[in-house]
Amino acid sequence: EDDSPQGDPESNNAEEEDLDNVDPAFALEYEDLSSAMDEINQWMDVLERMNNDLCNEIRQLIEESKQGDDLVLDSDMSAGDGAAE
């Protein structure tokens, strides 16, 4: 899976519309800032996906651990039942 950010064509159209309303003296700075913010947003999306994947793995490990604990408790109880007889 490629975690690199991908550009959103719809956001590019919105940027072009925004640039039409910007004072020409600030257009370059605005374009640079907008581009930097888009890149930050794309990397935030990557981090969110990675975080979600990690949370899912943690949940799975917790469930496996609980199942392992249940097996240990069951075997302890079975061993205890046999010793009591």
From TrEMBL:
Pfam family name, one: UPF0184
Region of interest: Disordered: 1-24, 65-85
Designated name of the protein: Uncharacterized protein
Annotated keywords: Coiled coil
Coiled coil spans: 33-64
